[in-house]
């Protein structure tokens, strides 16, 4: 009897194991690290609080009191084009167009101790080292590189809250590990507010660092443990002379002193090493306290088995990657699974293992029944990343909305997040797009909290009159050009957000709110100039601004874009926009012109986030505002043009190379666009349960949904030439329109595309 039970169990186990594919092999974190992608190649786990990755330079945010434009290239700390590494730090943004972080930089060295980082042209003048991509390995959850100047091999892996280092040293009695507490990304003299370190014993230290800047009250606590006792240690302070320092001068604090504090500090730890000896470090983070950091470390990595931690990290990634199993070419698999990897990096976990986190009110809170998240780059990610989570990560999406509600409850301004970052809102970019994420999650059945309370938070945020022109928008129906340099894009984005609020109100049968916000959602019409057919800045007196160029991205009333792209930003009402622009035929020709025109460099020369690599005609794919545009042909009775453009964008803007992204990945938005589009459908207007169809680039895809069901996408006669769709079947029934619903996905089933080399007109 026992044997009869065991054998079926073993068989089921074997079948389950065979269903799990080795998909980690297709993830190439190096994609996007060259040119504009702004991704990092280091080690992290899905939605992890630690992002342990190399830095390749030490540029300051300012030079001579002015913004240093070159620092923009280092938003992720690492630039593929560089030849030197300055160290390995524990916090990074993935793919952003602005930056912070780079906390707690560690660098192993040997020989004469040097505490300055040196320069790229003379790495031996400091602690940095030259390196070669030939001796570099970047995988999901693992990074390895040889530091040529000191003949040290560095390896990195991580858990959710702990980074683990493994450094293989040569034989030396002058081996060092440097902890640079001044280093950071987007750094400047006043960046570090205060630093504290306590040396507990000869293998353990704890402390914290508070920084100013994008997150102006950001404090990160840490615990650092060595696998081997250090023989000596010390610090160097670079603090400016203070008028009063108390009586700490009675001690020699520079060598073997157990408690240090200041603004600008660097520490070093000395070791004797044998040839090939490995020194390991566990470095845990906490937003709450040193004790919590230590608890995080002891809970997540109890021993010193680096290979075990690496294997756990990669197994975690493999489980997440297997949520979608595709059949396609090898290059397409690399692009797809790297996109899936990048999409599952952010938002990041912002709770300790005991559930605690620091809130916007600077108080310690406990997440009750959910994981609290931060790093919400909402201007980017509301478009496709969060809708993607509602399909493939609904439980996490639920927690993310709860995190936004906690943010609202703790906000002194009683606003939902704009760009949430480590118990701060850095207020970056336009719109109040958390309302889109919340509405989309509730409408699609993802959020299990109080929907009416969530709607109230959306309303309060949308009526915050003194935030970025909302008062003018409410009173006039647009934001006057005299009052804002991004008046048009703000009006357009507020209009869409208001539509999302209206959809939520309608679902909850709060029709007074629906009526108010559906009216507000039509405010985009106030910036549309019928005489020229473009969105245009409007003055307070109701007239349009005279000096205007629809191609220019500078001074025309738009943020990171021009009127040619933003004039199509009415994702919530394409039919009304089409009518406004003269009907379906004229609208389609307008789209044709956008994709085929030439946009000279002069028109985006002053916009960091737009470069030639991300442009097709005049369409800017390398930045987010136009991401829905190729799908608008579906509303013109010419869906074959959507199909052709989608495949063109997929092939041109995504490649399995270091420079394979045509623009900032922006916390996964570029990657989410790729995955949706390669699967054949896209959420043009989050807050709606409808997806527009395109042209899948996969041969087959199985979406393993959290509810236990599967949704399969099949592309018959798929090829590089067969980019057009002759017909689409949903569960065997032919579709009459190029749209499907969210319930079609979550109920499970099969979507079959029949591909052709010629369009079906």
Automatic annotation (TrEMBL):
<feature type="signal peptide">
    <location>
        <begin position="1"/>
        <end position="19"/>
    </location>
</feature>
<feature type="domain" description="Glycosyl hydrolase family 92">
    <location>
        <begin position="292"/>
        <end position="756"/>
    </location>
</feature>
<keyword id="KW-0732">Signal</keyword>
<dbReference type="InterPro" id="IPR014718">
    <property type="entry name" value="GH-type_carb-bd"/>
</dbReference>
<dbReference type="InterPro" id="IPR041371">
    <property type="entry name" value="GH92_N"/>
</dbReference>
<keyword id="KW-0378">Hydrolase</keyword>
<dbReference type="InterPro" id="IPR005887">
    <property type="entry name" value="GH92_a_mannosidase_put"/>
</dbReference>
<dbReference type="Pfam" id="PF07971">
    <property type="entry name" value="Glyco_hydro_92"/>
</dbReference>
<dbReference type="Pfam" id="PF17678">
    <property type="entry name" value="Glyco_hydro_92N"/>
</dbReference>
<protein>
    <submittedName>
        <fullName>Glycoside hydrolase family 92 protein</fullName>
    </submittedName>
</protein>
<comment type="subunit">
    <text>Monomer.</text>
</comment>
<dbReference type="GO" id="GO:0016787">
    <property type="term" value="F:hydrolase activity"/>
</dbReference>
<dbReference type="InterPro" id="IPR008928">
    <property type="entry name" value="6-hairpin_glycosidase_sf"/>
</dbReference>
<dbReference type="InterPro" id="IPR050883">
    <property type="entry name" value="PNGase"/>
</dbReference>
<keyword id="KW-0106">Calcium</keyword>
<feature type="domain" description="Glycosyl hydrolase family 92 N-terminal">
    <location>
        <begin position="26"/>
        <end position="286"/>
    </location>
</feature>
<dbReference type="InterPro" id="IPR012939">
    <property type="entry name" value="Glyco_hydro_92"/>
</dbReference>
